[in-house]
Amino acid sequence: MTDDKDINRQIRQIYTKGNSIVNKFKACTEDVKAELFRIYCMNMYCCTLWANYSKAALKRLKVAYKTVFRKMFNISTKSGSTTMFMLRQACNPLDVILRKSINSLRNRVMTSENNIICAITNSTFYLDFNITKEWTKLLFAL
């Protein structure tokens, strides 16, 4: 009952798509590579629903993300990752992607006019949900 399998699926996707892009578009400009990276590697579908996972799984995901990015732009492993992402056009680190995704979904849930969703978010149980606790932890800890 953990999200580790889904995180491992996401890791495989990042490596598969990333290696494909690196091999097919190695002669392209950095602008094109950055756009391809944003389109194919920065989409983390369902990451906002991860609530029960190991720290090791999330660390492997971060490593995969950084590895593909470095491979795509021929960046040494000695350079810092924050600087590495900031130098490229709008390529965010994984922590930022997770935080933006969670904040986006959380805002949509909280402003929903659906009666069922409103009943859930207004209940006292809403704060006890694992997903709510995880959102709060990630939004303020990352």
Give an account of the 3D structure.
The chain is mainly alpha-helical and 142 residues long. The chain has one domain (4-141). The protein contains seven helices and no strands. It has helices spanning 4-24, 30-40, 55-73, 81-87, 94-110, 115-122, 130-141. The longest helix is centred in the N-terminal third of the chain and has 21 residues, at 4-24.
Q: Overall mean pLDDT score?
A: 85
Order of helices and strands: HHHHHHH
Fraction of residues in β-strands? under 5%
Discrete helix count: 7
What is the structural class?
mainly alpha
Provide the helix percentage: 55-70%
Overall geometry comes to elongated
Q: What is the domain tally?
A: 1
How far is the N terminus from the C terminus? 24 Å
**Low-pLDDT segments:** none
Number of strands: 0
Describe the biggest sheet? none
Instruction: Please give the radius of gyration in angstroms.
Output: 17 Å
